[in-house]
Amino acid sequence: MVRVSGKLRDVLRSLTRREVVDQVRAVAQPIVMVVVAYVGFLNNSPQVAAVASLALLIYTAYVLSWYVSRTVELRRINVDLRAQLMSRGDSIKVNAPEGVRVRPVASRHFEVKGGEMTLKWGGVARLLGLLLTAYDPLTGLSISTFRGLKLAVPTLVGSLEGLGASASTLLESGVEEYRGLVEYDYTKPASRIHWPSSARINELVAKDYSEEAARLIVSIPALPDLLTEGDVRPIDRVLMALEGLARRYGLIRVMLIGPGISEGINVTLGEVPLVEGLLVDAYSWARDEVEVERLSRLINAPIEEAAWVVYPRPRPVEGGWDYFIANAMGHLAIIPSEAAEYAVQLRRRGIEVLVV
Fold first, then answer.
1. Is the domain of 16 the same as that of 33?
2. Domain housing 254
3. pTM
């Protein structure tokens, strides 16, 4: 009994005041009709009983027809959103028929207002799907269906003038190099497509980068502190710096270094957002369990599905910076301004540092 009451409280807590009123109204209306009809029979008032029974019959027929028609309509709604590179401030609008509310289930990179999602962060934004809800103002009834998409959208944080320019003197300038042209692999970012050659042969071909092509190696502390929420997160400033470096050097190698973590990835300008995806995946254990459970109940999906879009909850790791300092030798180190005091230790060890 305690367990059931607890679940009921959780459900009510997730509903708005209007939704609670509509739920009560939808349940109360047929109950009132049944009670009136029953009272009419008890008091030997066939007219009252007949009117109440007729009203209940009409109400039931209306509800069934509305439910069937809306269910079919929700299933017919065509949702075709493709993963494409976005920039901060870009919006995605989902159109739906009148009377149908669209609620995107997305990571916190997006600011959601109605059926429109505006990108407020950079990185790898995740869209699990759309919660489509049809509402009937007459009865207060609503019906919802979840349309799964599970898209990972690479996003750019936008350029920051002057950021990364100081790093130009750290290493010799290199040009963008690649082994040659190969058939385009659709699992790779579209930024690697070589459009002039593709147009000549009428077939998509892409640049095949070599591991040695990266002329700049950048180390980033792989710590959840970078994901701390705010108007501009530390990871946002790091990505801006990486964009500036990738714009100058063409191809850079980014090393994520943290306690027990050592991930490396070669990125061009359009692939910089993938760095945040690596960081998020590295701390996928730090899910916000409360938010995951709430979302799982809302869309009636397994915990694993809901966890896919919930952002990791930042948690400091002891000794993280010491581990980073010891393993960043020979690289350009990018650290957020919140930890600028570590730049002194890095420079003492001969490590070039860019504080962002």
1. yes
2. 165-175+215-355
3. 0.62
